């Protein structure tokens, strides 16, 4: 089978960007319909960073096609899931997985590690940021902003 994102409803706002921190509910089943994992059953939403390999490829690629409040069924063939290895004795080798996923919320990551040093009279500080890498380090982000403000004075 092929990788599919079957949207069940309309969401609101922009689609989830790469590197965002997404909060989702999901219900995962094998092809035979057997449930192998579900955040809904645990009543505990799952939070992860999109596009950095924290989750299977099908999620990294599928979630970026979804909006807040949107539900979709992600069909993930083995190359978008756990491949020939399977996972933890629960997912058999070469399994195609189906996930009912709902995007509850997302927040963009702080993306300001590299400073593009522009002329000192730059009026808009964010013109001077080169968005190359991501950082979760709040202190580092604050240092970058402080250096940037120094350069603007």
Automatic annotation (TrEMBL):
GO terms for cellular component: cytoplasm
Entry EC no(s): 5.2.1.8
Write out the transmembrane intervals.
none
Catalyzed chemical reaction(s): [protein]-peptidylproline (omega=180) = [protein]-peptidylproline (omega=0)
Using the UniProt record, name the top-level EC class of this enzyme in a single word: isomerase
Tell me which residues make up the PPIase FKBP-type domain: 19-107
Q: What molecular function terms (GO) are annotated for this protein?
A: peptidyl-prolyl cis-trans isomerase activity
The name this protein carries in UniProt is peptidylprolyl isomerase
């Amino acid at each position: 089978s092929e990788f599919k994102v079957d949207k069940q409803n309309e969401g609101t706002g922009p689609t989830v960007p790469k590197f965002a921190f997404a909060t989702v509910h999901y219900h995962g089943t094998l092809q035979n319909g057997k449930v192998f994992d579900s955040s809904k059953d645990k009543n505990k939403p799952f939070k992860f960073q999109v596009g950095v390999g924290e989750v299977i490829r099908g999620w990294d690629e599928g979630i970026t096609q979804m909006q807040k409040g949107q539900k979709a069924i992600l069909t993930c063939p083995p190359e978008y899931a756990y491949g020939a290895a399977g996972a933890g004795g629960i997912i058999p080798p070469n399994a195609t997985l189906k996930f009912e996923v709902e995007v509850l919320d997302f927040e963009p990551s702080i993306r300001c590690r590299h400073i593009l040093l522009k002329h000192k009279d730059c009026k808009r500080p964010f013109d001077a940021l080169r968005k190359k890498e991501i950082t979760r380090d709040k202190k580092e982000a604050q240092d970058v902003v402080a250096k940037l403000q120094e350069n603007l004075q």
